[in-house]
Amino acid sequence: MNISDSERIAQKLDELGYKSAPEKEADLVIVNACSVRQTAIDRIWGRIRKWQNNNKKVFITGCVLKADRDKFAKKNIHTFNIQELPKLQQILKEHSNILLNNRISSKDVKSYLGYFDVKPKLDSQIAYIPIMTGCDNFCSYCAVPYTRGREVSRPIEDIISEIRDILDKGFKNIMLLGQNVNSYKYGFSKLLKKVDELPNDFQFTFMSSNPHDMTDEIIQTFSELKKWPRELHLAMQSGDDEVLKKMNRKYTSAKFLKLVSDLKSQIPDIKLTTDIIVGFPGETKKQFENTVKICQKIKFEKAYVSKYSPRAGTVSAKLKDNVPKMEKKRRWLILDQLINN
Ligand code: SF4
User: Fold this and answer.
1) 275 alpha carbon – ligand 1 mean position (Å)
2) Which domains does the chain have, with CATH numbers?
3) Residue 78, CB-side half-sphere exposure with 13 Å CA sphere
4) Which of 65, 132, 142 to mutate to test the pocket of ligand 1 (most atoms within 8 A of CB)?
5) Per DSSP, what are the bridge partners of residue 133?
6) What are the start-end ranges of the H helices in 134-248?
7) Whose CA is closest to atom 1 on ligand 1?
8) What is the pLDDT of residues 5-17, one digit of tens each?
9) Does residue 208 have a cis peptide bond before it, meaning omega lies within 30 degrees of 0?
């Protein structure tokens, strides 16, 4: 999603007459930040000091929590919301601090639709197409509902028209993006079928699918797609029911296993990848072992394993981050070796 946003920022700057420059020579730096982990935000600070010493104008956008926005503002760094991109010229002109409320409401639908109108500057092999943005799920560890706001879906016709343009430019790989594509408001199955029916020679994938709102209809549609390479990213996060509950993931390990079995029976050659968090507050060794066991059963192709770190303002940040660093590392290594080796 960040790559996709950055491509749109680059295109907007092109339209405004800016030219891209090596970091040393640039007068203007726009950081498209990610708050998924604290370390990502921490790393920006060192860079900012360097840029400010070299008299560069620095702006920040992307997923930034209010606490971080406030800190940036104190250092005279301008922060703007990604859906304000259509107004970038005005923002750059004003150079004022635009601080945001902690949560973006559904009233922002209109401005987000304007954001989707900014076309990307395509540099990568894959064309990233946002189909929706934001999330209503409020998993207890996650900053997305606070930084990107609530779910906003883009109309099917808009998406198809952007894909048509991109295919005309010769792209062969498309990725449909959304924090939670299964809950795409205008029907995820319908959208998948429309994309699959486009006549060009290409393939497409999508991410992320939340296990809790995967339906039989969507699975049936997957099995009928011709241009989807049968790769599905399905974030499990934990294989222990108590931890899943604390994470507010709205499914149990048994439900997740049933979902995997349904997917494998309808699409036998499916390749599953996943996300797992180790060392969630209070996760015991036994609970971690439950995650290991379920991974042994499922045999994911790949897992993005992360060591839990609290994000200020989220529900789990109020829980004691009591799994020691070394233990988190140990659990991380076990899963990484089990799945990714
Ligand atoms: S579904 Fe994904 S984006 Fe939404 S709150 Fe949960 S982890 Fe965050």
Assistant:
1) 11
2) 2-94 (no CATH), 125-210 (3.30.750.210), 230-341 (3.30.750.200)
3) 19
4) 142
5) 152
6) 144-147, 156-168, 188-197, 216-224, 241-246
7) 137
8) 898 999 999 888 8
9) yes
Ligand 1 geometric centre to CA of 138 (Å): 6
Cα 96 to ligand 1 centroid, rounded to whole Å = 31
Q: Is 237 in the pocket of ligand 1 (CB under 6 A)?
A: no
Helix locations, the chain, DSSP H? 2-15, 38-53, 66-74, 88-94, 109-117, 144-147, 156-168, 188-197, 216-224, 241-246, 253-266, 285-298, 325-335
Q: Out of 65-79, 105-119, 166-180, 294-308, pick the least confident.
A: 105-119
Task: Indicate whether residue 135 lines ligand 1 (CB < 6 A).
Answer: yes
Q: Is 140 in the pocket of ligand 1 (CB under 6 A)?
A: no
Whole-angstrom distance, CA of residue 276 vs CA of residue 259: 17
Per-residue pLDDT tens digits for 100-118 = 333 334 444 455 667 777 7
Tens of pLDDT, residues 41-62: 888 888 888 888 888 889 999 8
